[in-house]
Amino acid sequence: MDQGWFSKPVAVSVGITGTIRHISNAQQAVELLTGQWRDAGSLQHGAALRACRRAMSGDVTTEAAREAFVGAAREAHVLVE
Q1: pLDDT tens profile 6-51
Q2: C-alpha distances in angstroms, 22 versus 16, 42, 59, 72?
Q3: pTM of the prediction?
Q4: What residues pair up with 32 in beta bridges, in sequence order?
Q5: How far apart are CA 2 and CA 7, in angstroms?
Q6: Residue of 29, 10, 18 lying closest to 79 (CA atoms)
């Protein structure tokens, strides 16, 4: 499986302390989405998780996966813009 590198990293705030992480690929996004995600189970979360997994298998472009991840991060109020 491919890691699905993004064209540009996505900065998100994670954890209780709000540590900034730069998510560079679909694999990192999946790990974050399945681990400590604030809005796990939302429609945006599910769409991002599916898109990132599909990007890793080559079924979806990495840019589409990145956009889905950004949408989920924005919805969860963790996107650093």
Answers
A1: 999 999 999 888 899 999 999 999 999 999 888 788 999 999 999 9
A2: 17, 22, 24, 15
A3: 0.94
A4: none
A5: 15
A6: 10
